[in-house]
Amino acid sequence: MNQHHLSAAKSVFFPSALTASGWQENVVMGISPDGKIASLESNQSPKRVDEFFDVVALPGMVNVHSHAFQRALAGLTEYRTARHDSFWTWRKLMYDFLEQLTPDDMYTIARQLYLEMLLAGYTWVGEFHYLHNDFGGRRYGNLAEMSESLIRAAQDTGIGLCLLPTLYQRGGFDDAELAGGQQRFELSNSEFLQLYEYLSEKQSVGFSVNLAIHSLRAVSFDAANEIISSVRSLNPDCCVHIHIAEQVKEVEDCHARHGLRPVEFLFENFAVNGNWCLIHATHSEAHELELIANSCAVVGLCPSTEANLGDGFFSARDFFDTGGLFAIGGDSHCSVDLRDELRTMEYVQRLRTRQRAILGTDVQSTGRHLYQRAAFGGGQALGVEAGVIKIGARADLTLVDPNHPAIAGATGDRLIDRLIFCNADDPIIGSIVGGQMYSMDQPEFQQQVIESQDEFVELSRRLMGNRS
Length: 468
Fold this sequence. Notes:
Elements: E1 10-19, E2 22-31, E3 37-41, E4 51-52, E5 56-59, E6 61-66, H1 87-97, H2 103-120, E7 122-129, H3 145-157, E8 160-167, H4 189-200, E9 207-209, E10 211-215, H5 221-234, E11 240-244, H6 248-258, H7 262-269, E12 276-280, H8 286-295, E13 298-301, H9 303-309, H10 316-321, E14 325-328, H11 338-353, H12 366-382, E15 397-400, H13 412-421, E16 428-433, E17 436-439, H14 443-467
Parallel strand pairs: 1-4, 1-5, 6-7, 7-8, 8-9, 8-10, 10-11, 11-12, 12-13, 13-14
Antiparallel strand pairs: 1-2, 2-3, 5-15, 15-16, 16-17
Helix pairs in contact: 2-3, 2-14, 4-5, 12-13
């Protein structure tokens, strides 16, 4: 493994850290051999520590929603294909793209993406994984062939991975059969449960398995209910992720079939609680936002992708006012930058209201409030003790260079505000995951990044050549 490994109990020093109880200065953090925070003290001297880091430590940011293979598709769909291009025309291009990808390609793409995430300050990723099959829907001899490519990429890079094997069985609310690229997504309930049980046995420190239902349009109520019940019998606390209310057409089709909007249908038929993560929820009305907030479910927002696809506006301020929980995800990875996600999230609200500092509070700045809530919500959504700096949590940290021109001189909340809203070269220098540091300052990690980039470039040229 190419990392700075804290193999035994260690103490590390940070000039400043944003902990669960607020900003603390001159922090000494004790890290246990299993990568958790064993002790946390402020106003300490750095003289008697094992490691001195001249960085600001933020809670490690969680990327709650990822389709890794789409990293290789980023930027290839920015041309008109219809009179009114939308998510649905983009989806057709994505299906065409899938006709080329092999398990080895998946590994190459995911490894590059996960290294980019580590350098961008992400410490965990929720991989919403539905690319299960070979071309034409043929089953691999090993149902986990594609899944294992993702697991190997995460283990080789060091990022925390929550794999979300995803059930996907139909082409819409009209029960249309899957066709074309969609055939690579399909598993029967029995096949899916076989895959889930196999993957669950592979869980380890830094790798967990939960569950995803692709969407209400792609899975019937009966099939979703059966799988959730079966998985919960094996893992009562299993987290459940689902795409919901991303598109107006989805809302209209759901209402036509069931007489209910997607969020309404979900709460009418499933016991939604804090173990659920509702991805997008873009077109949710006020009463639906209140349902979500009261359930303590997390909304997984993907601002850069939602903007890229023209999805619409999530009513973030209204949701915040109800006490709703949220996390951020990279989704299609047109951006691998947590600052971009948080900045876009706030700017959308400013454009809608023609006001400023929409998602801050009277006691926390906009940047601080967005960052801290996103990190915490991400940990909850993946079912890991991450996204917060406190004793007992994982030692997962996002590292910021306090001497970077974009933030130099700023401290506390103003530092995070400059980090997010000063759109300059990134002051984030890397991350610590489970007590292990990932930064381009480390020669071995730097070499791994270079090798990964070379292989990804070769793959990209081949894929582009096949598209020309």
